[in-house]
Every structure is written in structure tokens, then in C-alpha cells.
Amino acid sequence: MKKALSILFLLLLFTGCTTSKNSSSVIEIDYNNKKFNQLVQTPPEQAVALVVNFATDEQIKILQPHETLKLQQTENIIFVIPKDNRSGIAIYSQDIEADGTLFDVEKVYENPKPANDFALAMQALRPEGAPAYRIAITTKDGTEYSYVISYNGKDGNENLEYITEKAS
Length: 168
Description:
Number of strands: 10
Helix content: 10-25%
Strand order of the largest sheet: 2-6-3-1-9
Number of helices: 3
Structural class: alpha+beta
Strand content: 25-35%
Order of helices and strands: HHEHEEEEEEEEE
Radius of gyration: 25 Å
């Protein structure tokens, strides 16, 4: 009787250890920022981040920023949402040369590995003159994209703007 139970136990043990060559256990990881996808339906293909100006109440419910960066004393809030959860974000203060060329003065914020579905809220003015800040998004392959915070005096700034320009 003990021998029969031992054989039965061994049979059950070995049949549970078989593998199939056809089975696949590939796990797909979604690196897309869900907040980015909730705010836009069809972004430009080259977009690496979203800038939200004058957020509506509905947009604020979606955004729920992880961090708030107080750059200037203002009620104006600018939100930045990377498209890919693996993208880093940095903010640089800027100044202008006599010839009109902008240059970075110092890095005032950096988050190289933001949390999943990251959103940054920034208190910053959009100057009518020389820009004071630049947003830099670094993608997983190390490419840096740039967006200068400035005021569009002709048409005003849109509610949703995309960061699409590679840094020079």
C-alpha cells in the first residue's frame, strides 16, 4: 500500500513539472503615462511631453501632481507630463546674451526617474520679454527635448502644448 501511494505521489509530482514549448510567458510592460493619455487623444508622433496651461477643473482632477515647484510668486500653474514613464525631467533658469541667444544659468529642478504617471506642477510666470525657464525632457535613449516657457503675445498660449523640439 505504501509503495502504491509513493508511486502515485511521484506521478503527480512529475506530471506537474512538465513544460510546453508552445507556451509563452512574455510580460508586456506599459511605459505610457496614463495621465498623458487621458488628456490627449491623438498627440503628435514626436511629442515626448505635454504642457498644460490654464488647466480646467476636469484636467486638474486627472493631473494630481506628484510635486509642485514654486519658481515664482504667482497664481499661474503650468503642468508638465512626460509621455513615457522612463523619461527624466529637469528645469533650468535662463538668461539672454546681448545677441539674443538664450543660455542655461543653473538647473533648478531635476527628477531623472519620476514615478509612474508623473505630473509636475510649476508656479511660474510666462514672461512677455526674455524667457526665464526651460523645461528639458530626457528620453530613455538619452535624447534631450526642450521647451522654453514664454508668452505667445500674438495668439496667447494654448491649453495643451507639446514638447517636440530636440535641444540644440
